[in-house]
Amino acid sequence: MTSPLLRLRILHTNDIHSHFEQMPSIAAAFHELRASAGAEHTLTLDIGDHMDRMRPQTEGSSGSANLAVMNETGYEAVALGNNEGLTFTKEALNDIYSSKANFKVLCSNLLDSETGKVPSWGVPYHIVEKGGIRIGLIGVTAYFTDFYTLLGWDIQEPIRATANLVRELRAQVDLIVVLSHLGLRNDEKMAAEIPEIDIILGGHTHHLLEIPQRIGNTVVCAAGKFGQYFGVVDVHIDAFTRKPVTIEGYVRRTDDYAESGDDQVKAVIERYEASSNQVLSREVAYLQQPLAAEWYKEAPLGNLLAEGLRKRVGVDIGIVNAGQFLEGLANGPVTVGRLLEICPSPINPCLMLLSGENILQALEESLLPEFQEKLLYGFGFRGKVLGMLNVDGLRIEYDLNAPAYAKIKRVWIGSELLAVEKEYQVATIDMFTFGVGYHSLSKGRGVQYFLPEFLRDIMRTELQDSEAIQQSNVQRWFGV
User: Fold this and answer.
1) Ranges for the Calcineurin-like phosphoesterase domain (predicted)?
2) Tell me: the pLDDT tens digits for 241-285?
3) Are 262 and 407 in the same domain?
4) Does one domain contain both 212 and 291?
5) 390: pLDDT confidence band, cut at 50, 70 and 90?
6) Distance CA 186, CA 205 (A)
7) Same-domain pairing of 392 and 375
């Protein structure tokens, strides 16, 4: 006699990054797919980075807009992404999730360093029953130890944490689903090392798996980025053996549901857009003169940021790429929203010891079009191109007509020439420590990160300093 089958439909998104324009269509699709399978047979999940503070609704509402949209869409459990965990303080996350979330927040590898426990608004795992199937949910986030420590978190190695929870849950549930904001390579490693996992729903590296990977008995799925796609997994389980018979995953284009966008979600987004615009209209500085930003040549706004980094960290040299600014500032009032528009990246200051040789290499590369025009996305960068280097504390003499990597003639630090064999304390940005952009700037040692400030927070302080603004007009790069 054939065993009866129990069925489950999982709907999942990842790495929405506050692309609110996609959420009405995703909500409409979820309502339709939930109705066709039956709400009692459907589980709706997000795998992290739904929030992104570059978007006005998120920044102006401190993430409340995302929570309201997720509640209205019907999410039942979510994993934290690094954009939630690292761009908001503990206090902000407590405010966001404690009273506003209608879903479970999975913190399977994130503990409060003071208590050694998951935060009060999170759970280490979640067991939910759908259509007679008991599902164990585990949610793990990327292992950025240095950053989480500075914010008061004790992050656990995610694959080891997952293995421990799988051992604990396996006998209690019919299906184990891991919400993994770790990236595809780590998902593949997890599937290979922990074969008791049935499904891994992935994110973080923005990978799209139109056809799921099957590694042993584990099905690995992911739905790309920015809400362009969403994922569906249909599961059938033998009612007697309690084992999966079929697990079929696929993705759908969100645009296919654009004409049937959910009106309730649209209304939530519009409401938060209006309230966020009010918050972002607050004036933080008034400029007596415009401050230009340029990607391919020295400009005051980039100099001002380099100076601000240097002062914040308390050293003699500041270095940052000009591409952090999308535009310059006109004279007159400067608002919170305008700073977000021109400097949207959630990037933090950092301090490192760099050799003169590595500084010199970066300065040489800064004069080359292939570096200035390099297209970047990720690692916190929300600009368009890398841009040349803006500096403070240096005087650079160069010859553009000289061969590549021989254009820099002399570099002065105060009254001394840069020595290639000497180490210098340099204030720069966390992005460079990840090995992107100017690679020699990732070779520093003794790296210290400064959180929770973003670059636009540094700019807000500098724009209120008339002397710093005047200094930003002082030339650092001299053609010879």
Assistant:
1) 8-207
2) 999 999 999 999 999 998 888 999 999 999 999 999 999 999 999
3) no
4) no
5) very high
6) 10
7) yes
